[in-house]
Amino acid sequence: MESIDIYKVGLGLWKLPESECADIVYNAIKIGYRHLDSACDYGNEVEIGKGIARAIEDGICTRADLKITSKLWNTYHAKEHVELAFQKSLSDLGLTYLDTYLIHFPIAQPFVPFDTRYPPEWIMDPESETPEMVIAPVPLQETWQAMEALSEKGLVKEIGICNYTSGLLNDLMAYAKIKPAQLQIESHPYLTQERLIRLAKSYNISVTAFSPLGALSYLELDMAKQSESVLEQSVVVKAAERLNKTPAQIVLRWGVQRGCSIIPKSSNLNRLKENISIFDFCLSDDEMMAISALNINKRFNDPGDFCEAAFNKFYPIYD
Ligand code: A2P
Q1: Which domain covers residue 305, as residue numbers?
Q2: What is the CATH number for 25?
Q3: CA distance to 143, 147, 155, 157, 319, per residue, from 150 (Å)
Q4: pTM passes above 0.85
Q5: 34 in helix, strand or coil?
Q6: How does pLDDT run across 75-104, given as a tens digit for each residue?
Q7: Residue 209: inside a domain
Q8: Residues with CB under 6 A from ligand 1
């Protein structure tokens, strides 16, 4: 069995309600989480910061024990806005540095001042009669160079990207002076992304899988149906029975055992404990292969779908 790397399971903070967020972060740290995955767009960084501060004040951990990620939102891609957005996340979180800062999407949108709206989300002018998402002509190279400047100033230990395809990654590697340390992508048994993960590893980039439980994250958003849950698949259920674990633990273990970090979200203390308790068992090679074979390239988080459905803009990025 491999040694336990507690940073391999982070707490995903997307959709954690503001009212419960500080307590959930505090309790997660108390039960052993040391990796927190935040973003400007999640709208709860002040509350996350309160949970972190309480855990440190209570002596549960030190700042150095934690790996804290945040992400640059689409409206701050221009070079003059990248540090501004970074500093806003940093001060909301109550921190003096970040472990990791990632470009959230390879999508640039026009700047929205903090006092107009924060987080700005996807729609340019929500009050307009025809609210829609707007695109800004900012090349990703410009944004990456501003990310490099954050790293050079010592404000962040690692920089990286999310939701990049292999084409964008190859391009980034051609111009990056500071290479990306991390790639964060949607990945679960219905979207294994084997080639992209292999490419990232060949560049020495570590991969974090978001939505590691697949459809579950999207039920509350009406972006998935219960019937699309991977937890009911017989190969998952059988492995759970063999190992006396829950189906969710099997799917999460598969995510870690294939070499990724995972960031499942839960607002329930029992499920938080369950999700981090995946280091005392191993899936067999056959089980790993059978779970990987469930792949149907099913993406739940696809701007090519939701930008048109919700923000009046057809804007595919994966095709
Ligand atoms: P809850 O917060 O009620 O636990 P994501 O894929 O974005 O990380 O979201 C995970 C989704 O799966 C959330 O809706 C979460 O709901 C649910 N969930 C998290 N852990 C478990 C688990 N161990 N078993 C079943 N559902 C889970």
Answers
A1: 11-311
A2: 3.20.20.100
A3: 11, 5, 6, 9, 31
A4: yes
A5: coil
A6: 999 999 999 999 999 999 999 999 999 999
A7: yes
A8: 12, 14, 211, 213, 216-217, 248, 264-268, 271, 274-275
